[in-house]
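re: ur question from yesterday

yeah so i grabbed the chain u mentioned. its 402 aa long if i counted rite. heres the sequnce exactly as i have it in my notes:
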Amino acid sequence: MPLMTSLLLLVIAARLLGQLFQRIGQPAIVGEMLAGILLGPSAFNFIEANESLSGIADLAVFLIVLQAGLEMDFKSIMSAIFSRRIIVAILGFFIPLISGILVGVLFELETTRAVFLGLCISITALPVAIRILQSFNMLETEIARYSVATAIVNDIAALLILGVILNLKAEEISFTWADLGISIAFTIGKLIILGAIIVSVGWLTQKLIHRGLHLERIPDRLVNLLGSDALFGIVIFFSLAFGVVSDMLGFHFIIGAFFGALLLDKKLFLASHYRELERTLGSIGNGFLAPVFFVYLGLEFAVQELSPFFVSVVLLVSIVSKIYSGWFGGKLLKLNKIDCIGIGIILNGRGVMELVVAGIGYHKGLIDQALFSTLVFMGIVTTMITPIMFKRWVMPHKETPI
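ran it thru and got these structure tokens back, copy pasting raw so excuse formatting
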């Protein structure tokens, strides 16, 4: 099927089912993902996931993260990472990681496959967490601050471990301790470089603002010179540049793109231009590309590759370990009961990041088709049930409207 025809069907199905689920009181993303499952190989097999659609989905992820990054404050996120909140991030990563590895050992998987299983269970997809919180108008809440910070740390940690594995030269992952030490040092070095770039740009921007330099005049003059579209292009270029740096260092591009958008403080724009930018991103992202991203996740599901008992255990462990780790971390920090539960539920959404790691492992020959399909299924199910659980167990106790 031609790309444009496939895209048309995906968009129509995603919008229709998304609207249907909204009418019955559920977030649109549940219907959007169901549309992908129905159109994909698991049901009617009208459309298959391919490189062209994958590229469009990557663009959708980029715009989702860009939009969310612009709405958040850099200082708040950094304080969440370099504060007591890191406790939630650490628990939210290592409890699911160890749980997944133990499941792999129980089912006698090879070491590499067991590690990949734990790795994928430990991931919280940043764009999925952001989109769910956006759909409930809760990006400015305590749940969002802890969840987003944890998602960032979890994804970075997962990609760090993935980088260590991929940097090992032995094909069978039979490595010496010297090889492991060199690989870890090399990967941490790249992470330090990325962090240094992000922190340096953020520090420099804040210093210039504090010294009275009117940085908002720069985009304003560009808009007057080149037109209102120039502002959208500037923001895309800035965030994309950080994404490219992140990708070049071996980490997923959305990590850098998110921080790039995060560095674009609202103070850098005139209020009128910022509102115009928000409307443009909302029209393109929420109106078109975001539904494509979630419907594409549904296309990745292949039911014939699943082993019911193994899938059931993986699914149970992935859900329980994530929710428990978020709840336990929140309890240690003395958050209220509903916030603890909310953090744990949001951390359960995996989506694109889990699929990225699983896809890399599969294409590198580190996991087989059966485990890859199980990980895809786990990512889809946990992403689909997360907004439902959040609506059922958290939203009734919050005053914020959906």
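noticed a couple things. The two ends are 37 Å apart (CA to CA). also The chain is about 75% helix and 0% strand.
anyway ttyl
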